[in-house]
Design brief:
The protein is of the alpha+beta class. It has 4 helices and 11 strands. The strands form 3 sheets. Strands 2-1-5-6-7-4-3 form a 7-stranded antiparallel sheet. A two-stranded antiparallel ribbon has the order 8-10. The chain has a two-stranded antiparallel ribbon with strand order 9-11. A hairpin with a 6-residue loop joins strand 5 and strand 6. The longest helix is centred in the middle third of the chain and has 12 residues.
């Protein structure tokens, strides 16, 4: 497996084949939704802010937020760190419209996701198909859980996740 590196606008820069990746991703207590990527190829440049790292076609990856060079007497390792895709979603808040106390999301799962992606301003990172998923979802008032993960992930029926089809968007708007 190789990882693809893209810049903050989603333009593919280069692949990384020699690496070690440690990810903690998911929803719930004790999950920090971060990654630590050890890049072993000395020709790979230092990462820039908001670069994206991902395995094409998989949920593996995220947004680079920093790096660190760890050295010992006999070796050195370049660590790229950041938020997994789940972590990116978890950091975005779904606030109610002005003058409203709560935000309620309901309808076809893909329509709800499209609305949330637009509302969160993350269309450059995530896309959702135009077609209906065929699964209806409904959330209660999201004042207590204003991030996308808890709002949809903890409140939708499990079969909804099987039918929701999202992806990562590249610079040309193609879905991955």
């Amino acid at each position: 497996m190789e990882l693809i590196v893209a810049d903050s606008a989603g333009r593919t820069l280069f692949p990384i084949a020699d690496f070690e990746l440690d990810m903690d991703s998911g929803w719930g207590d004790g999950v920090d939704n971060s990654f630590d990527l050890v890049v072993r190829d000395p020709s790979v440049p230092l990462p820039e802010a908001a670069w994206r790292v991902f395995a094409d076609g998989l949920e593996i990856g995220g947004r680079v937020e920093g790096f660190e060079l760890k050295t010992s007497r006999t070796s050195s390792e370049l660590h790229w760190t950041g938020s997994t895709w789940t972590g990116v979603l978890e950091k975005r808040l779904l606030w109610p419209d002005p003058g409203q106390d709560y935000l309620v999301l309901s309808g076809d799962a893909n329509a709800v996701l499209r609305s949330a992606v637009k509302r969160l301003g993350i269309g450059s990172l995530f896309t959702v198909p135009d077609a209906d998923a065929g699964v209806s979802v409904a959330t209660d008032a999201t004042g207590t859980y204003p991030t996308l993960g808890p709002t949809l992930g903890w409140r939708c029926a499990p079969q909804a996740f099987a039918s929701m089809r999202g992806g990562w968007a590249d610079r040309a708007g193609s879905r991955r």
